[in-house]
Amino acid sequence: MRQIYYTFLTLLRGRGSHVIKTVSLTLGLFVGVLLFAQIAFEMSFDSHYKGVEQIYKIENYVYRGGDGPHYDPWLLGPATSTFVENLPEEIECGTVCKNMGSIHMFYNDRRTQPMLTFADTAYFRTLGIEVLVGDPRELANPDVSFVSERYANDYLGKDSPVGKVLLYNKSIPITIKGVYKEIPENSTLRPDIIVSLATPLKYEMFRWSWEGGSAYSGYLRVRPDVDPERLEARMNQVASQYISTDPQNEYALRYSLKSLKNMYRKNESVRRMHTILSVLAFSILFIAAMNYVLIAISSLYKRSKAIGVHKCNGASQGDIFSMFLWETVLILFISCICTVGLVFTFREIIEDILGASLRSLFTWQTLWVPVCILFFLFLLAGVLPGKIFSSVPVTQVFRRYTEGKNSWKRPLLFIQFAGVSFVVGLLCVTWVQYQHITNRDVGYDTETVAFVENEQIAHPEMLKNVLKSLPMVEQVSISTMDLLGGYSGDWITEENGEYLFTASWNIADYDFLSTTGLVLLEGRHIQASGEMLVNEEFVRQRGWKGSAVGQPVYLYGEYAGIIVGMLKDFPTSSAYGSILPFMMASEYYYDEERVYNVRLKPPYKESLQALNEEIERIFPTDDLEFRLYQQEIEKQYDSVLRFRDSVVIASVSILLIALVGLFGYINDEIRRRSKEIAVRKVNGAQEVDILSLFSYNICWIALSSVGFGVVISYFVGQKWLEQFADQIHISIPLYVLLILVINLLIHLAVFLKARSIARENPVLSIQAE
Question: What is the dihedral of CA 179, 184, 186, 187, to 10 degrees?
């Protein structure tokens, strides 16, 4: 207890430096705990399902013309049920589903945007999801659904939701037949509403055949001790009765299994992200701890007399060591309280950046994360300075330390400056890449064109004419697909049927190019049936050297049309994918999914709002909410935005920590060398000479450490950029400029902190001595 008493007295006497140490540790804890909590949260993805070790996703691989395998994310409808029926000894149950993402559902004229999945009766049993109310066999019927506990509580009132009716697309009534337990946030499958798969089949939204219509996902719950590889072989044997599974054939499909538990966390891009976040979190914690050590050991000059007095009064080396450990414990405790305060103060911002609620980030299962971090900081920040202080002999504690005994500070400054440079360099990469992918030239107008999908409109031409008549609308077009991707693909072949490549396609009316802003490089627009437009990549892969205009196109060996124009390349997917071959025809089939594209008049955001209000008034029973293409493009990169914002927080925190350490170092140097500075000034030294005393050593430390940190950030940044097909190239001169800017900031901090002592009357320093 005596050590604790003396520790309290020490904290009160030297509260200035202890406040600095507390601020440094609080910043390190705040960012480090959040980043490591996010990693732990994502590493636990899909581990909560009952018997998750037995759950596998059916993977689909395509072979075309002996070329492959090519991963296909979608499954043929009958595949899952066929495997379950034919392999009962290996498969316990299986489900087929279609994840629709966030869609509009209406309840009492109130629009909600739940995550919706179409699924069959075995969905809950296969995935081990607990049903609270209702019989899952109800999902065999069309127009019925089960809702999650959370969705029912948030949107459907306090009474039982069973029997209530939701509207899908404002036109299809869906009756709620049950409620299932809320699925945790760390799940790849987290629907708010499960609608019976019989519903889209009833309204012919999807195909259900071994002949085509890949649109589904399949999951199997296998029996214990089943060998997945052996089961894969048997699955392909069963599938061969319906389709070709021989990779040497012209077209073949083969199936494999992937463990649901490992599917997310073993994804290459996820693992890359976790590695970078781990490096960031460790860097911040390590620098915060080193900063604590730097400030603590810097006070040795000031606290040596007190240590000597304790030892002269009988304190042992262990007593001194325990005093410093208790000091670290108390400062860590205060830092923890401040960290908790910061977390709850900025709760909404944190949840938005990390993409998870605090209750999911900090659970009993992830409690080991902050505990391990605190233990790490305690060992690094408490044991090291405590050992140094307790091992100083009584005979030396009253001696003055020379510059030669000051060299231990420089490695700590090197670590801090290198850490700042690394994080700031990585921030530059992520920031510029995010700006690039959200503002790149995609070949069409994104800020002036809005779109909406709706296949329920009975008379699309009537809606098109209504849209044309509105004052905020400049032009209107109807197409099968929007411009953001999700295109179907067709085989491009020679006349004899020899496979060449697969091309994405769209069908649109004559106004499509002028409405969207797609650029026609040569030829003309489509004017009649049988005419087609293709993009530059199509021409490249086809191997045509001259103009493509007039060339025939063959699909699956059949004549499809003649090319009348070539479009400038535009991405048919996000920046994660490369430019793909594309073709467009003018025949529009009204039984296909319909997209209405609208070019707005300025100001665009105000026009969009006015358009949606007017359409809601004219078509109150239809779900027609237009969205700008630019808004949807930005949604594609939410994960990139969250990562960038995480790096921003890390950069600000590590910069503040490093400045605290730098100021502590300069303060210690001023105290230690005050007499020397006074003597130099008496002998004619100018202000610039005094400032150079502090900046000379820091200059060399900063140049080497900043250069080292920026080089490391370059390699880590390039590794992060590998996930993008369209990525930036940061030139070497930009990294050199970054090194110069960081060095300038360091020297500016040194100048501002040391200027006061350079201007001080030397008589005051000599009198203090």
Answer: -20
